[in-house]
Amino acid sequence: MRAVAVLLVLAVALSGCASSAPPRPAARPFDHVRQLAIVVSGESRFSVLEHRAEPGRTFDEVLKWGVLSPYQALLRPVAELVHKGVNWLLDVDRKADAAVDLGGIAPRSVVSAAFVQALEASARFDEIQIYAREPLGEDRRRAEAIVRISVPAWGLVRVREGEPDLVSAFADARAEMVAPGSGVALWEAAEDVTDPERLPLKSFTGDRDFTRQQLIDVLQRAGHRLASELLYARSAGR
Amino acid sequence: MSARRSLWLVVLLAAAGCASTAGLDVGYPEAGVNRSLLASSPARRVAIGPVTDRRTEARIGVELESKKDVVTRRPVTEIVREALALELGKNGHVVTSGATDVVLSAAVEEFWLDAISGYSNVHYVGKVAIALVLTDGRGGQRVFARRYVGIKRRLAEPDARDVPREVMDAALARAMHDVATDAELVRALTRLTTAAAR
């Protein structure tokens, strides 16, 4: 009887393991894709992100006062809104300080060009066309997949506390690959990309050409990063 | 007897607790490793040579509140060696210590986690910089050298305990993905055949 019980437990456990084992994934749905259409899309916002504690710290300290403790849960969302508002105002000022001229180049265009360059270097695609808007007619029919590239945010971000704080150029880039016609999403990636170099904010605000180059570098890095993740997700086909 | 067992249990639990706080368990999980561009060169026998630590500090950061050192549970050189071995193996190359086609040397130049305090959250920035050098296993000639830098930024709640490790994992993974999809590295590995066949 005891042996039967043990067998029962084992059987249940084994069947559980078998049913919970994830099925082996089939070939990725874009492994066959050799012809790509890249569409530069979306708006980009330049900002200087500092993630500072200062504007909200006072409010945070107020929230620690014993007399307000029963209302903390109620006040915190309000405090966060105020904090965001203050930071936004600071942001506007600093944005003007670090205003840069990319010579009419849109950040998403730089990212897209670097993305295409990296994909071409991989020799994994026969044809890659880049478009400023959604391709039409024959162009759309020829593409086996459409990749939409956007850069919602880019600028400078504080990456280290100290005297002085250090900041880096950054770009938050996104890519979405869809099948034309069906609109089925085949792959997507969102990459927070940061330049490896870290410098005081003055280095950026005091030298427009340097800032411009740092920003272009990080946008190119973002394009390579997205390409790297696409190639990594795609099987080798060997 | 029962009391002695209980005592051992307490000791074991305490030891396990200590182990979990001994450092960040940064790694490169095998489950996330793909065959990618690196698999498109002919399969090579690769010896992973010395992985050196060129950092100026043994710690990888400083805790925001306590100002205590943040360290990894295992040496960063071991973490990087393991990640490289996994990536090479998954891409069809044979990691060996015997006769080799190529020797891959690595240097860890940076392995650092910054934590920047914000109003209601913490901004984590993890950075991993690794320099790789590929030398011909027969002649010892340098055939490829490149530096890979993986950086991850993330905003998190101050009490999110797993985030520092996850940020460093992600930074390491980005560096490794860049290695695995580097067309120049693949070309260097492919050219090696031609050189060996001569």
What can you see in these coordinates?
The complex is a heterodimer of chains A (238) and B (198). Chain A is of the alpha/beta class and 238 residues long. Chain A has a domain at 35-50 and 103-233: 3-Layer(aba) Sandwich (Rossmann fold), CATH 3.40.50.10610. Chain A is built from 7 helices and 6 strands. Chain A has helices at residues 2-20, 54-64, 72-97, 107-122, 137-142, 201-205, 208-233; strands spanning 35-40, 45-49, 127-131, 145-160, 166-178, 185-194. In chain A, strands 1, 2, 3, 4, 5 and 6 form a 6-stranded mixed beta sheet that branches. The model of chain B is unreliable at 6-21 and 194-198 (pLDDT under 50). Chain B has one domain (26-197): Double Stranded RNA Binding Domain (2-Layer Sandwich). In chain B, the strands form 2 sheets. In chain B, strands 4-1-5-6-7 form a 5-stranded mixed beta sheet. In chain B, strands 2-3 form a two-stranded antiparallel sheet. Chain B has helices at 2-20, 76-90, 163-180, 183-197; strands spanning 45-53, 61-62, 69-70, 94-95, 102-117, 122-136, 142-156. In chain B, a hairpin with a 5-residue loop joins strand 6 (122-136) and strand 7 (142-156). Chain B contains 4 helices and 7 strands. The interface between A and B is large, with 40 and 33 residues.
